[in-house]
Amino acid sequence: MLLKLSARGLRPLGACSEEPFLVRVVGSDAGAPGPHDALLDRSTEGPLPRGHRAYLLHHRRDVAALRDAYVLGAEHRYVGVGDVLRIDPARGVLTAVYRAGAATNSLLVTERCDNFCVMCSQPPNDLDDHARVEELERAIPLIASDAREIGITGGEPALLGPRLIRLVERLATHLPTTSVHILSNGRRFADPTFARALAAVAHPDLMVGIPLYADVADVHDYVVQARGAFDETVRGIVALKRAGVAVELRFVVHRETIEGLVSFARFVARNLTFVDHVALMALEPVGFARAHLDRLWIDPVDYGDALTEAVRWLDTAGLTVSIYNHPLCVLPAGLHRFARKSISDWKNLYLDACDGCARREACGGFFASATVRHSRAITPFSDP
Prior knowledge:
globular, alpha/beta, about 25% helix, 9 helices, 8-stranded mixed β-sheet
């Protein structure tokens, strides 16, 4: 069977396997193929070795005798050796589960969530996630052991309950040197038993990133659209730290949270100094954030003073603090040392105004969605 992968999906040129399957991409020098290996072949002629689960071709070739052969389209240029892919011939979809060449990789484990944040970039869906998690459990052993970091995201991963614990156990078993970062609203970890169960996995490099949007319960609850969420979130943070799990606090700056930014920093500096990291983040204008953009957007150049004071409070308290998702030119010079290149490569871009900027390599750039709205202060640096 030969199938062509295109932007319009898989176009059958012969018989096809109907069931979705997972493959690990290997090159021609990989040796004897394993049961899940897919050969990535860039040549135009010559025999192809037998025994691979699938064949990913850059050019159409006579491979009628081979099972599961695919011609990659231009939109699949990212596919490389070490990637883990899900191929669904019936639906015509190729999905990257893990990309070896990417700086960051995340496993979307569920689309369900018990918050409904006004700026959510991944609006929740009440969908059954059982099959999704089972497939991710099968994918983990295919990921190269030198993977630097794996994220677990949603939705709200903690809604998986014991299945989340099993997923982290699988990561600890197959990728013991890979750091794991779980993005969670923290509420389910208010149950100390659940927090202790995560700690009991004893993953050597695990952190839970939890958003806290105010030092006042009503403000946080409004932003996440869930009554009682502030109380559960703070109790979840405390329970995780008491159990020995590293915690990162996240604060997204927008018009509904900016007035409380400095008081939030003071609250953390006085009450939550045991957390391991604090990230102050710019708005990503997608999902609900884009739908509510006129109500939420605030130019980062207009909150530079508040951001500076917040960082001063956190830094003085001895906390590790980072600024995410902000290009350097919109930040006061004193904050540049806190700025991180935090945007995933697949949705990271630079504007035309960045051409020729002497600090472009050090700058985190923009979300791809920044074409919708970005700061009026974008100005290239002339000095490195």
